[in-house]
Amino acid sequence: MLEHILTLSAFLFCIGVFGLITSRNMVRALMCLELIFNAVNINLVAFSNFLDSSQIKGEIFSIFIIAIAAAEATIGLAIVLAIYRNRKSTRIDQFNLLKW
Amino acid sequence: MFLLQKYDYFFVFLLIISFFSILIFSLSKWIAPINKGPEKFTSYESGIEPMGEACIQFQIRYYMFALVFVIFDVETVFLYPWAMSFYNFGISSFIEALIFILILIIGLVYAWRKGALEWS
Amino acid sequence: MKLELDMFFLYGSTILPECILIFSLLIILIIDLTFPKKDTIWLYFISLTSLLISIIILLFQYKTDPIISFLGSFQTDSFNRIFQSFIVFCSILCIPLSIEYIKCAKMAIPEFLIFILTATVGGMFLCGANDLVTIFVSLECLSLCSYLLCGYTKRDIRSNEAAIKYLLIGGTSSSILAYGFSWLYGLSGGETNIQKITNGLLNAETYNSSGTFIAFICILVGLAFKLSLVPFHQWTPDIYEGSPTPVVAFLSVTSKIAGLALATRILNILFSFSPNEWKIFLEILAILSMILGNLVAITQTSMKRMLAYSSISQIGYILIGLITGDLKGYTSMTIYVFFYIFMNLGTFACIILYSLRTGTDNIRDYAGLYIKDPLLSFSLTLCLLSLGGLPPLTGFFGKLYLFWCGWQSGFYLLVFIALITSVISLYYYLKIIKLILTKKNNEINPYIQAYIITSPTFFSKNPIEFVMIFCVLGSTFLGIIINPIFSFFQDSLSLSVFFIK
To answer: Which protein family is it in (chain B)?
Structure first.
């Protein structure tokens, strides 16, 4: 049973990384970031259910990860808002000011 | 299917449900009369005349409220474990939770004073 | 399990410096909210005072035996104390650097100070974190503040772009790190304390499994992103170029120091069962970053980008001490970090001063600066030469100790490449210095012409110049007294948790 959950979280992780690499829109990239964090959460909750059911440290850890992911998403969206105000677009591939 | 013995019922239900949904949709397609007209293509807004386009831009205000909401919504999650084990910890944890809420309140006051909660 | 939540009164002294900073940032926030009239001198005063108090407390307590507090989630020893005081020291130097820049860019001051203080607190907690949860939370506390600081000039598109790039890449790296943490949590049988994880891995005999290897790779990738080692360095030049310059000065030292402390703790305590494995990986990363950082830095045209690549190569040198792994190696690493603060902040102080007066960062616009401002060009020259490691200056002695320790421990290839690349680095530093000092007749570029000459009196100098002169003095003369410094750091590091077994 544990293997299935771990496989699920590994798939979610891979989808998240793939999406981060390929997505053109910034909001979509932020969503992929959330996917990776959710993969971590699934892993932690599964492990804490199977191995550590008395102290449930993993679930506490996942609460912290949820809170921090929310803060990160909020900061990301705020920066997206600032970018949108300045250049009326949120596409990643149009960010080419900083290059060598 | 051999690995997940507990899920046999689930798969039976899944089969039945998918069978029923296909059956019902094909029945309605077979029975219902087919009309074509301009009314068919308008969006459905609870029976009222639709106003404007389906893809409208939301006010940017909603966005600001959503940003503030997300932060405070998630921070309250930390209070649930504390509340569940309140009787085990005694008065000191109560004071610590008060400090935590106080910091959140300072954040809320900050958002308020900086005008993130103003609509106009 | 009975929880002792009033342990704060027992262990309060272990996090007292951090508590002072948190308290002062709350005070700054409340002052900003209650008084609409902006009296900014007070805000600077409060932040600098709290930083000073906390560094004094840290210096008084620097020789402590390892104490584990807060249910095993925080550990205090002399190694952490030294790195924490480095971080506070950087913040003390960086706040005067940013005063005039903020005034010119018309940014809000209280938020800037709050972000700087929060990042400092996050870095300080990161140095002593002993628990996976604490490591993750304090790491994010540091990096979330850094994203906000990068995008602090909201109207500037380049700053926005740097912020979003930093956010995406930093978020990716910390999520990969968290994925590695989740595997460690599972493989050790449900432990989050890093000493208990090692015991759990040894007891469950999973320390050689492929799962541990995946966790190790994930954690190493996350750390390498934070330290900007070479295959994971792509974000550094972009962020250095786009962000406001005082913020870059702050990030280039603080996040490096905190990341280095974290890497040392994780690799030494968590992966203490396979030291040869991580040393090989780190060696490859260090060699790559020394070679690529120095080679790419030659071709740069922007000063900030050049410094970004040079910082990538510097972190490669610093890693030699970590790879060496004995007391002398750690001591020389700590000393080099200490010198690096002076050299790097001194260089950045010069750049901030120049860009405030002319508004450009290009290297070629520095041509002929010597005619207009000898003080600035002299200090820039000294800092750059010290970064390159020319003999009588501080950077030379730091590098000498690092390379000598590496050579004695038998890392010949590493030290050999480090020697060659530091010669290459001298080339591009000298190129800039030649540009500054040589005078092309009748062809002064417009930026230099627009340069405002400062008043020669001593008291009318601005805070940036004070910091600049202080750092230049440090990066010139500290090398002479390296022997007492070395024995001082060696004494205190020998009390740290890595050497008390």
So the answer is: Belongs to the complex I subunit 3 family.
